[in-house]
Amino acid sequence: AQSVSQHNHHVILSEAASLELGCNYSYGGTVNLFWYVQYPGQHLQLLLKYFSGDPLVKGIKGFEAEFIKSKFSFNLRKPSVQWSDTAEYFCAVRTNAGKSTFGDGTTLTVKP
Amino acid sequence: EAEVAQSPRYKITEKSQAVAFWCDPISGHATLYWYRQILGQGPELLVQFQDESVVDDSQLPKDRFSAERLKGVDSTLKIQPAELGDSAMYLCASSLTRGLGEKLFFGSGTQLSVL
Predict the structure, then answer these.
(1) Which of A7, A35, B50, B108 is deepest in the core (most CB within 10 A)?
(2) 3-state SS, residue B81
(3) Of B35, B100, B104, the CB nearest to A30
């Protein structure tokens, strides 16, 4: 069975600081990788995903993530965070069976 | 943008009572998922439907939980009897297909409190 591990439970940054959230997964087969975000008071929504090809993927609002197959990692990055990036971020792995498994999430608080 | 509809938004019940949650996925989405999210944890898959058929219910506590999607459109998740440990957010999601690259569209969830 697949599993996802997110290294940081809660991250606090000041505006303009750089962000990197760690994500590692465990699965022996083909996967697609996703980052979902939940802004305060809103539902979970897709931030970005890796399907194939270039391991560096770009998503909405200046976020990017790099898939490193040898490390089973899919870390999320943003060069300069804004107050509006305050949210909970979930890494997810999806298998050929169509099953999506989520990590426990990282709460990001950006101080203005 | 089309949304996944869930109701009720909040549900408070007493231990041993029955509760039911409803979900209406985005029109045309063949795959429907029910997830449970406990505070401080990520969503955990309870059951997955492809049209009206269950394709994964390995994590569904079948002694008290049941789910159906009779016409392959909307779905109901039921708990009977509810236990204190069932207090959580119940999320419904849908996707166009079961494909590897499909993203999930989530509803706003039902927050269940069992007293």
Answers:
(1) A35
(2) coil
(3) B100
Identify how many contiguous H helices and E strands chain B contains and give both numbers: 0, 11
The distance of B64 to chain A (nearest Cα, Å) reads 23
pLDDT tens track for A7-52:
899 999 999 999 999 999 999 888 899 999 999 999 999 999 998 8
For tokens 């990692």, what's the residue? A73
* Mean per-residue pLDDT, B22-51: 96
Whether residue A8 lies within 8 A of chain B, CB to CB, comes out as no
Q: Which of residues 12-71 of A touch B (CB under 8 A)?
A: 30-32, 34, 36, 43-46, 49, 51
Q: What are phi and psi of A83, to 5 degrees?
A: -55, -35
B45, A45: Cβ pair inside 8 Å? Answer: no
Residue B106 structure tokens: 């989530």
Rounded Cα gap, residues B113 and B115, in angstroms: 6
The full length of chain B comes to 115
Phi first, then psi, for residue B52 (nearest 5°) are: -95, 0
